[in-house]
Structure formats: structure tokens, C-alpha cells
Design goal:
Strand order of the largest sheet: 3-2-1-4-5-7-6
Largest sheet: 7 strands, mixed
Order of helices and strands: HHHEHEHEEHEHEE
Strand content: 15-25%
Length: 241
């Protein structure tokens, strides 16, 4: 009889444990919790402008990046973290009437200002769309190139973000990252950490160049193989932050 009572007591304890809520990090968006947390701090967002447009044009930044990325008439491009639209307006001119540019940002005020600029400059090939910190919310199979210029280091949920970005690429589409080789707390990201995070979600690095003339480096990725399940993704160890 004592043995039966012990078994019943054990079943009761197990049932209580089974009903206990699973502990989660409530500081993260619920839509991100299936993905690993990044092992790196994130810079505080201080604004939507990396530099003045005049200074960037003085070093011919946009044209150099667009040339390296293979942007031409008819290309479809998503400009992630578009901010005030430095790249958006220059991409719109480069891709022409047969191309399309989608400007995306999580800052609604910046998007409103960009919308005014797009209307003022009559950029009929540009559309504007808000995104989330863990989801760029891009239409599937839509882009030849996706630009992330001086903004990837500010993405707080990188694994969820670039995992959800993958389906937006057309066959042969590429993700272009321009950033700076310095700690993530200082508005940059070390290249090895960048490579690791993209590889973890199933991207292949196809080109990397140190480019002081664009105030950073240029990296080009493409999707490779099947997209992993969120639980299969392993967080990269950050040894330089």
C-alpha cells in the first residue's frame, strides 16, 4: 500500500511540474523566442543617418556600393533601414522605370519624412513599408538585391530577422551588407561575427572587401541550401565586442 501511495505522489509531482509554465525571456519579442539570442551587445540607435549626404557623395559612396552590388536598370532592391533615404533615392535613379525599390524601416517618423521626399522627387518606382525588429516583412520572391547599409549591427534579433528575410530573395538574389569592423557597442560589427551569423541561418559569403573609401567594408551573401528550423540555429560566440 505504501508503494502505491508513493507512486501516486510521484505522479502528482510530475503533473504539477508539467503544468509549470516554461520560463522565457520576457524582454525579447514573443515572435523571436524560438530563435537563439545573439551573443553580442547592440549599439543604441542614435539616428537614421550614418553621415551627411554631402559627405557620402564626396566619397562617391552610393555609386561605388551599387557598382559592386551589380545594380542596373531593371533591378529590384529592398533598402532595409532606409532612414532618410540616402540609398533609396539613388537606387531609384539607378534601377530606372523598369526597376523597383522598396524602402523599409522600423522608424515610422523617418518613413513619413522619406515619403514626403519620394513624393517631392516624384520617385514612382519607390514604395515604402514599415518593418519589425525581428521581421523585415518583405514580400516573397521579390528582390534581386537586399541592402543593409550601416544598420545590421543595430538589429537586436539578427537570427530571426535574416531568417525571415531569406524568402524575399529571388533565385540568385543577394544580400548586401556594408558595415564597419569595430565592436557592436561602437556602431559596427566584426566581419567574422557577421559571417558566422549569416552562415548560421543558411547564407553563403560570396564576396568581402575592405573599403576605406566607403567608410567600412562590403559583404555579399546568397542563400544556400534549405533554411534551417529556428531550433537548429546555433548562436555565434562573440569574442570581440
Amino acid at each position: 500500500m505504501l508503494q502505491v501511495k508513493n507512486i501516486i505522489a510521484g505522479i502528482f509531482v510530475l503533473s504539477v511540474l508539467a503544468c509549470k509554465p516554461v520560463e522565457t525571456d520576457s524582454s525579447r519579442p514573443e515572435t523571436s523566442r524560438a530563435f537563439p539570442s545573439p551573443d553580442r551587445p547592440v549599439s543604441t540607435v542614435t539616428g537614421n543617418s550614418f553621415s551627411t549626404e554631402e559627405a557620402r557623395d564626396d566619397r562617391n559612396e552610393a555609386n561605388k556600393v551599387m557598382d559592386m552590388a551589380g545594380i542596373e536598370e531593371g533591378t529590384t532592391v529592398a533598402d532595409i533601414g532606409a532612414g532618410e533615404g540616402y540609398y533609396t533615392v539613388r537606387l531609384a535613379e539607378r534601377v530606372g522605370k523598369t526597376g523597383r525599390v522598396l524602402a523599409q524601416d522600423i522608424d515610422e517618423k523617418a518613413l513619413k519624412r522619406l515619403g514626403i521626399r519620394v513624393e517631392r522627387e516624384r520617385l514612382d518606382n519607390v514604395s515604402i513599408k514599415p518593418g519589425d525588429i525581428d521581421d523585415p516583412k518583405l514580400p516573397k520572391n521579390s528582390f534581386d538585391r537586399i541592402f543593409m547599409v550601416h544598420m545590421y549591427h543595430e538589429v537586436t534579433e539578427p537570427y530571426a530577422f535574416i531568417w525571415r528575410l531569406r524568402p524575399a530573395l529571388k533565385e540568385g538574389g543577394q544580400v548586401i551588407v556594408v558595415d564597419v569592423d569595430r565592436p557592436t557597442t561602437e556602431h559596427g560589427i566584426p566581419p567574422k561575427l557577421l559571417f558566422c551569423e549569416f552562415a548560421a541561418v543558411g547564407y553563403r559569403l560570396i564576396e568581402f572587401k575592405e573599403k576605406p573609401d566607403i567608410a567600412g567594408y562590403f559583404a555579399r551573401f546568397e542563400a544556400e541550401g534549405a533554411r534551417p528550423e529556428p531550433a537548429e540555429i546555433k548562436s555565434c560566440s562573440n569574442t570581440k565586442s
